[in-house]
Design brief:
- The chain is mainly alpha-helical and about 260 residues long.
- It is built from eight helices and six strands.
- The protein has helices at about 10-35, 40-65, 80-105, 110-130, 145-165, 170-195, 210-235, 240-265; strands at about 5, 70, 80, 135, 140, 195-200.
- Helices cover about 75% and strands about 5% of the residues.
- It is elongated and about 85 Å long.
- Strands 1-2 form a two-stranded antiparallel ribbon. Strands 3-4 form a two-stranded antiparallel ribbon.
Length: about 260
């Protein structure tokens, strides 16, 4: 088994990947809360779509930021571009299915469990499709026990995160939930990486695919920018309760003005 390096740049990649996981989780959970409080089906759908994009792109960005610090002694590393893009699409679609299950369901417990299972499977599928995109001079094997553990962590993390979206209220609770979910997603990643073993081959053929700096890094910058900008938009946009209070205040003002006109001599 060849020597692998998970922290080529020290603590920079694991810390940054954890931050991205937390941002994606926080944004996704807040959008799910907004969806549950939405007054129209169209508004609910839009919030759930944003939640799926946030969580899916957040965990994808977390994975590949962490992979920027991954290296193998004696081999260069490349990434298959179509498989890498597929891992992002799978993350968004499967996580979206889980989020929509929770957001549209009327029986909270059963739909929460199904949504957590779907979202967790999406996280795990994204990870292992992303690993299948890895190209190096050798073969990649997995410890099935650790693979199974990583999937269980993903499902537990997703279920806990969606439960927090349904039950936790207030900024402090939402922040704590996103920190815990980010930690769980990061734990799932490094558990999955601990399952990896690599056997280098004697051949040194030219590797296909793109390097991390050619493809992975620019895409993570784009998705990271999307997450932070969307987070700012969600933070600044009024909640359903705030809109109702604003509409009620405007209506009271109109009533006062109408009565004032009627009472004027």
């Amino acid at each position: 088994m060849e020597q692998m390096h998970h922290f080529t740049y020290g603590w920079l990649t694991p810390v940054l990947s954890y931050v991205m996981a937390c941002v994606g989780s926080a944004l996704g959970l807040r959008c799910t809360v907004r969806a549950l409080a939405a007054s129209t089906p169209g508004s609910r759908r839009n919030w759930l779509l944003t939640a799926a994009l946030a969580i899916g792109s957040g965990i994808w960005t977390m994975h590949f930021v962490a992979m920027l610090g991954f290296g193998v002694s004696g081999s260069a590393i490349r990434y298959d571009v179509p498989l890498t893009v597929l891992s992002l699409l799978v993350a968004v679609l499967v996580v979206g299915a889980g989020v929509f299950t929770v957001g549209q369901g009327s029986s909270r417990v059963s739909y929460l469990l199904m949504g957590g299972l779907g979202t967790g499977v999406g996280v795990a599928a994204m990870h292992y499709i992303g690993m299948a995109a890895l190209r190096l001079h050798g073969g990649v094997d997995y410890d099935p026990v650790l693979v199974g553990l990583s999937v269980l962590i993903a499902v537990a993390a997703a279920t806990a995160g969606l439960w927090a979206a349904l039950t936790v209220h207030g900024a402090a609770g939402a922040t704590a939930a996103s920190l815990v979910m980010g930690l769980a997603v990061s734990s799932m990643h490094y558990t999955g990486m601990a399952a990896v073993s690599i056997q280098l081959s004697p051949g040194r053929a030219v590797l296909s695919g793109a390097t991390a700096t050619e493809f992975i890094f620019p895409l993570t910058v784009v998705l990271g920018s999307f997450l932070f900008l969307t987070s700012a938009f969600v933070a600044l946009s009024p909640t359903a309760q705030q809109r109702r209070e604003s509409e009620s205040a405007v209506q009271r003002l109109h009533d006062v003005e109408a009565h004032g006109v009627e009472m004027a001599p």
